[in-house]
Sequence to fold (267 residues):
Amino acid sequence: MRQLEEALIAASTRAITYLRSSYVSKKPVGYGYSGDESREFDLVSERIILRTLKEYLNDVVLVSEESGVSGEGSWIAIVDPVDGSVNFEAGIPIAAVSIGLARNSREVSIRDIEAAVVAEVFRDVIYYFDKQSGFRTIGLDIKRRSQPGRILLGYADSAKSFEPLVNIMKNYGSDIRLRSLGSAALDIIYVALGAALGFVDARAKLRNVDIAASVAIANHLGSYAYLCNGTDLTSMRIDKVHRLECVVVGYDNSVASYLLNMMGFRP
Fold:
């Protein structure tokens, strides 16, 4: 596990060093595997991460928002080189580098991730997890709160995708506040740490590469993540890129189940 930790910390910090540098280019360079517009910083960050992982782990299979699936090796790395790239391009200081590592096998899923890192681009804070040593933060001493904050993190870009949020807000009333931060990986980490009650995204735009590492960390900390059809999100495969129709994450299982019920679904 020490080798995995060194690989993930090195890969994320090297990518962030580039993203904070004067060499960053925000020039559009086409469209990535997922169909979203790619900018040069996305591709450079991805290359830095892959090169570093190979340095520590030899060959790896890369599953990424930009390149899809490439390479061969005994490890699978599911990567979002800049989660919150719209924020990053606009200069809004909420973005992260997200990497999860699992042994390469058939039907490998989020629950098989052995080590993961979500590193904030604009703050010196890294959230790290592995199955042997557990969870820790680097840069700030942050513990999981015993009671979550009364904040719901969520996204909508149409009347249809906003409806689940409306239903939740109606049930919670004025006791809860809705926020949209722009980095799903960080949203889920903040829920797992208790800064927020839950996370909801019904836009059908999230992909497993965006949130695999953060869901693995959140699950270890006691949070629960579901697709809105009730499927445990940790069963989602990570050997290729998947689009997620609707995702709910709760501080714990009771919160996640309650959010799903208010949206008309059951886990």
Notes: The CA atoms of residues 21 and 66 lie 21 Å apart. Helices lie at 2-19, 40-57, 85-90, 159-172, 184-192, 208-221, 253-262.
